[in-house]
Structure formats: structure tokens, C-alpha cells
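User: Sequence recovery, please. Input:
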């Protein structure tokens, strides 16, 4: 299955692509829980090897409530990407509203020791309208 990446950000040769999908089968709308899955592809288009050290997410729900999520790596990994290589992972986001958004950045270390904050593009979380 070829994924359609809807959102892209490029920072100093590091490309972050995002595809997001609402998962009705994981959501419990009657209980006020909506769930999305997102697929991230990180591509190293720079001329140096980089390692993903940390993630920083800003998640906003439909009421404007912001949650900040920070941590080491992504899904338990701190991938090392040589020039021309990419890394894919899939994760999910629950919200208590049928819409919201996510954005943020990854902190990478280049082989020369410098740090790069690579933007994660803003992307909306929107459940399809349901007949009520």
C-alpha cells in the first residue's frame, strides 16, 4: 500500500513527511474518545549522518487545550540516518474532541556534533462528520 503523505517540512536537509488517518474502529465516540494514526517518514537529504535524539510534540484539541509531549527518540528508537536514508514509524493520538492538530520538532545530532531542530509539519486531526 502506497501511503499518501499530506504534510511536509524541510529543515537543513532533513525532510519530515506526515500522513494521518482517523480510525473510527479505535474511537469510542459515545465515550468522547477520538483516535488518529499517523505515519511519519524522516528522510536525510543532507550530506551528513544524523541521529534522532528527541521528539517534541504540541497537540491541541478542539477546545484549544494544548498538551506538550517530549521524550527520547520515536517509538523507543533513536534511528541513525546516513545521507539518502529514511526512517518510517507509525504512532497514534487520542483526543477528547473530534478535531485538533499536531505539530512539533525532532532534535537531531549531526556527525560533527551540531544539533538540528527539524520541524514536524502542522497537521490537522479531523474526524468525519457523523449523523446524529
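Assistant: Recovered sequence (132 residues):
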Amino acid at each position: 500500500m502506497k501511503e499518501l503523505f499530506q504534510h511536509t517540512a524541510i529543515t537543513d536537509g532533513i525532510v519530515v513527511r506526515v500522513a494521518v488517518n482517523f480510525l473510527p474502529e479505535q474511537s469510542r465516540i459515545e465515550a468522547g474518545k477520538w483516535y488518529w494514526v499517523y505515519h511519519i517518514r524522516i528522510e536525510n537529504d543532507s550530506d551528513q549522518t544524523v541521529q534522532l535524539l528527541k521528539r517534541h510534540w504540541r497537540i491541541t484539541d478542539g477546545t484549544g487545550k494544548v498538551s506538550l509531549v517530549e521524550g527520547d527518540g520515536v517509538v523507543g528508537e533513536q534511528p541513525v540516518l546516513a545521507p539518502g536514508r529514511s526512517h518510517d514509524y507509525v504512532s497514534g493520538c487520542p483526543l477528547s474532541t473530534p478535531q485538533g492538530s499536531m505539530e512539533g520538532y525532532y532534535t537531531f545530532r549531526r556527525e560533527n556534533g551540531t544539533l538540528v531542530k527539524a520541524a514536524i509539519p502542522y497537521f490537522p486531526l479531523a474526524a468525519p462528520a457523523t449523523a446524529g
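The radius of gyration is 16 Å.
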